[in-house]
Design goal:
Rhopdopsin 7-helix transmembrane proteins, transmembrane, two-stranded antiparallel sheet, receptor, membrane, mainly alpha, TRH_rcpt_1, elongated
């Protein structure tokens, strides 16, 4: 009976009753391609995800609910790259060299990273839906503190769920005439693992994609089919709350709301691309696992197995690139992190401008130096007789602004 390795190598152990004269070895071409691609993808992915974590955690205005989920996703992707990508480099040229403890821990970390990344994508999809489609509730629900609690629950749940892999894997040895091949594989027949694989496939792939498809459809209907009116007369109407506003104030408010809508669309498109890439890049591996669970003998084409592995590593490495390409504010944050420029405080400059809170918030979001995923679903209400001070930390001037 053949056993499938539980790790992302997608290898298969030798049939126990079968005797071979020499150890099976990957061709030189497969070894070179695997090593080069794995080193490049994992190197880019590790550096990019570390940058995502640094720019969000070290920059106060980047600490938003959506960005918290992106940090959780970045940590999960780092675990996948370190626990799946790098061990594959050594395994392609030799047998398993990490021992029994390494087999347990690496397998556990692989599935932990996979499951957390799936849950994080589902979490920020739900958060975007609430923020855009239920903007009033979002002011109380979509908060940083709540996002941190949800992330903590996700990590605790997945950590406990993946504990089962400590009891399902073991070191398998196959003796050949010219040596012994050691693999990190199953303890028992792979047929007994079919329910586990189908459970993983359903919980961490099918359900997240169904949820994302439905919610992003609802979000698209709000953002692209029912945009906010841009005509000041349509927005003001005869509502008493707008009585006494000057025409210039209304124009500024409408312009800022238009900018906020553009920002929301940009963020939603970026996150939707992340979900689509997750679905496409994980599809080969998920499909192969399901098919091989039903087929006997399983499909073992070497180049297709390599393609599945590279898709998994690419999914964990590509997200920071998407942020950089589709978000001007993440791009600015990455640029500042690379340049490592020191900010020198200067004399504070006071500005007194009659403006509304929605204009202040939207103007902050429109700035290319601020977080792109900031929650921007607030109404337009005037602030009367109130002074707001804030420091422009993104710019090198470090100037203090006050808006009355």
């Amino acid at each position: 009976m053949e056993n499938t390795t539980p790790t992302l190598q997608l290898e298969f152990n030798i049939t126990k009753g079968e005797e071979l004269n020499k150890m099976p070895q990957s061709s030189l071409q497969v070894q070179v391609v695997t090593i080069l691609l794995a080193l490049f993808i994992c190197g880019v992915g590790i550096a990019g995800n570390i940058m995502v974590v640094l720019v969000v955690l070290r920059t106060k205005h980047m600490m938003t609910p959506t960005n918290c989920y992106l940090v959780s996703l970045a940590f999960a992707d780092l675990i996948v790259l370190l626990a799946a990508g790098l061990p594959n480099i050594s395994e392609v040229v030799a047998s398993w060299v990490y021992g029994y403890a390494g087999c347990l821990c690496i397998t556990y970390l692989q599935y932990l990273g996979i499951n957390v990344s799936s849950c994080s994508i589902t979490a920020f999809t739900i958060e975007r839906y609430i923020a855009i489609c239920h903007s009033i509730k979002a002011q109380f629900i979509c908060t940083v503190s709540r996002a941190k609690k949800i992330i903590a629950f996700v990590w605790i749940f997945t950590s406990l769920y993946c504990i089962m892999w400590f009891f399902l894997v073991d070191i398998n040895e196959t003796v050949f005439t010219d040596g012994v091949v050691i693999k990190c594989g199953y303890r028992v027949s792979r047929n007994l693992y079919m329910p586990i694989y189908f459970l993983d496939f359903t919980l961490f792939y099918v359900i997240p994609l169904i949820v994302a498809t439905v919610l992003y459809g609802l979000i698209a209907r709000i953002l692209f089919m029912n945009p906010l009116p841009t005509n000041p007369k349509d927005r003001v109407g005869n509502d008493s709350i707008h009585q006494g506003w000057s025409n210039s104030s209304v124009k500024v408010s409408c312009k800022s709301n238009k900018g906020a809508m553009t920002s929301r669309k940009q963020v939603t498109k970026m996150l939707a691309v992340v979900v689509v890439l997750f679905a496409l890049l994980w599809m080969p591996y998920r499909t192969l696992v399901v098919v091989n669970s039903l087929m006997d003998p399983p499909y073992l084409n070497t180049w297709f197995l390599l393609f599945c592995r590279m898709c998994i590593y690419m999914n964990s490495a590509i997200n920071p690139i998407i942020y950089n390409l589709m978000s001007q504010k993440f791009q600015a944050a990455f640029s500042k992190l690379c340049k490592c420029k020191k900010q020198h405080p200067e004399k504070a400059t006071q500005y007194n401008v009659p403006v509304y809170y929605s204009v202040i918030k939207d103007s902050i979001q429109e700035s290319p130096d601020h977080a792109d995923t900031e929650k921007d679903d607030t109404g337009s209400y005037p602030v009367i007789g109130q002074k707001i001070n804030f420091t422009d930390k993104c710019k090198e001037t470090g100037a203090m602004f006050s808006i009355a």
